[in-house]
Structures are given as C-alpha cells and as structure tokens.
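ok, trying the design again with the full structure, not the truncated one.
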C-alpha cells in the first residue's frame, strides 16, 4: 500500500498517463502500463480534482467530499475507503485483496508468470505462484494448445 500513497505528481505518471512508475520494497522501481480506461480516469482526476501542481498524487477526501490538497493520502485512509466500499459489496475488501485479485486474474487470463511477477514487483516467480489458482486445468490447456498448434503445421 505504501507504493500507492507515496506516489507523486508528476514523477510517478509517465508516457502521457499510459504508465505509472512504482517504487516498491527495497527502493526497487518498476513501470506498470495502464489500460485506456484507467489512464483516462487518472487524467480526469488530475484535471478536474487534483490539479497539476507537483506533490502527492493522492490526497484524502473530506467527509464533505472535498479534496484535501494540503495532505497526502495515508495507508489508513486507503483502508477506510476500502472498508466503506466493501460495505456496499457485502465483502471484506482490502488493498492486499485487490493486489491478490490482480495477480490471480492476470494468470487466469493467460498472462505468463514472469510478466505477472514483473507487474506485481515480486523478486521471485515463486512468490507469484501463490496467486495461481488455475490448478490442473492450466496444464491440460497447455498440452492441448501444443497439440492444436502441431496439427496445423
């Protein structure tokens, strides 16, 4: 979660909103591309709410719904927002839950484990394997893909 709350504008947003630069554990830097919808939402946030002055990328929002540009969003603030949104979903939603879902969905949709590892900022693919819930089906599909490709040759 520190990766999120320590982001600064404009340092962590690059490629015309197409990529974010994340500083992870051990001060390791990685770049994560944003899909068009997320890039558009981030651009709207900057233009309509945050403004383009340098400083923290994310600011807390008051109970009145106003952006508090004088402060940086904190991990506690993120957890509070997640609890609030989780109540609407009748499910416990935490930042780690979202991270785990991101990793799991990448693998479920056929992203190779090494790309998922890079996007998650894991030092080892063994850590990323924890997110792989595909089980035996992935092995069966891998063999079937190979057989289908061989038959077309």
């Amino acid at each position: 979660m520190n990766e999120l709350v320590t982001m600064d504008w404009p340092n962590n947003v690059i490629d015309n909103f197409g990529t974010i630069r994340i500083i992870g554990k051990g001060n390791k830097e990685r770049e994560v591309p944003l899909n068009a919808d997320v890039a558009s939402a981030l651009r709207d946030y900057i233009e309509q709410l945050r403004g383009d002055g340098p400083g923290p990328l994310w600011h807390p929002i008051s109970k009145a719904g106003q952006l508090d540009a004088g402060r940086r969003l904190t991990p506690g603030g993120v957890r509070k927002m997640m609890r609030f949104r989780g109540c609407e979903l009748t499910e416990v939603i935490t930042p780690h839950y979202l991270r785990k879902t991101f990793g799991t969905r990448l693998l479920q949709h056929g992203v190779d484990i090494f790309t998922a590892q890079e996007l998650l900022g894991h030092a080892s693919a063994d850590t990323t394997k924890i997110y792989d819930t595909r089980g035996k089906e992935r092995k069966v599909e891998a063999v079937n893909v190979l057989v289908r490709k061989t038959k077309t040759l």
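Keeping the full-length input from now on. The helical segments are 2-5, 36-50, 75-89, 95-108, 113-120, 125-129, 136-151.
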